[in-house]
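ESCALATION

Customer reports they have been waiting on this structure for their group meeting. Please prioritize. Original submission:
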Amino acid sequence: MVVCGIVVLTFVNCVSVNWANRVQYVFTVAKVLALLIIIIIGCLQLARGSTLLLYHHTVVLGVFSLLHVCLFVCMVTVLSGRKR
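Update from on-call: job pushed to the front of the queue and completed.
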């Protein structure tokens, strides 16, 4: 399925750059709308007082957040040491 999508996008890009720009614009709008829907639903759930999963995920994700911070610091350290 992914390969078919890539083939279609490559074909559209080869046929017309204007069409490729339109397709990219449609995908960008769809992604932003999906994010807005998720954010709005989350805010509505918080406004209703549904915070049980929030507390559970905070405890579980605390370890993973620490891991992400460590990886980010290591990445910045490595990239800042390179010569230009």
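Sent to customer with the following note: The helical segments are 2-15, 17-47, 52-80.
Escalation resolved.
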